[in-house]
Amino acid sequence: MNQAKRQPRKLGWRFVVLAIVVMFLLTAVVRNVWVDVYYIPSASMEPLLQSGDRVLVSRMDFASTPIQRGDVVVFDGRGSFEPLNSGLGQLTDSAVGFGQWLGLVPNNNIYVKRVLGVAGDTVKCCSAAGLLEINGVPITESYLYPGDLPSELKFEVSVPQGKLWLMGDHRDVSADSRSLLGAPGGGLISASRVIGRPWATVWPLGRLHVLESDPVNAP
């Protein structure tokens, strides 16, 4: 009789464990194929994204649509942005790795920036009026952090095929393509390194909202 009473309890625990494993595997598939979550560790993309935000990132947006100027992208900086070396990405502790997977702690291999130059573009700063120029045309950047200049560093760069020129919206504090002009690769990243597009902030709850796109038009 005692064994008969214990059996349903054992089956119940096995079902719970199995359900947790299946849910974990389904979550892993969804996050690797469709939507992932990332932690924003710095102020480099303010006011759009703030330090401590957790964002949902669509991995499918660029599957059929090419990356365009003005797109905000999350990308793997290994091989291009590594010299900037900020965050916790170099740590290998399993707890840290799990925290990164949950979007609770930053990963310094992963960055979020705005695309200002695509293949064939010439990006220059600055025009006579102090604006960023793309292909010789000054552009107005409504997304810039209030009070920031387009760039205090003067530069001119041509973007080759398969590459992107990226900058943060909070230019005064952003370490981006400009910071690597003298490094191998010149601050350009491969378009194949783009993971996806952040489309919503999900934490903190007070900042829950869908992110709007800001296209940058230039000939």
TrEMBL record:
Q: Which family does it belong to?
A: Belongs to the peptidase S26 family.
What main location does UniProt list? membrane
Q: Where in the cell is it found?
A: Cell membrane; Membrane
The terms under GO molecular function for this entry are: signal peptidase activity
Keyword set includes S-adenosyl-L-methionine: no
Q: Which NCBIfam families does the protein's record reference? A: sigpep_I_bact
Record bears the keyword Hydrolase = yes
Domain Peptidase S26 spans what residues? 16-203
Recorded catalytic reaction(s): these are:
Cleavage of hydrophobic, N-terminal signal or leader sequences from secreted and periplasmic proteins
**Segments traversing the membrane:** 12-34
**What is the source species?**
Arthrobacter cryoconiti
Q: Which gene carries the instructions for this protein?
A: lepB
Judged by the first EC level, this protein's enzyme class is hydrolase
SUPFAM superfamilies membership: LexA/Signal peptidase (SSF51306)
Q: Could you tell me the EC number(s) of this protein?
A: 3.4.21.89
Descriptive protein name? Signal peptidase I
Database matches in Pfam families = Peptidase_S26
Cross-referenced InterPro entries, in alphabetical order?
LexA/Signal_pep-like_sf (IPR036286), Pept_S26A_signal_pept_1 (IPR000223), Peptidase_S26 (IPR019533)
Q: Which residues form a coiled coil?
A: none
Record key words, sorted = Hydrolase, Membrane, Protease, Transmembrane, Transmembrane helix
Membrane topology listed for this record: Single-pass type II membrane protein
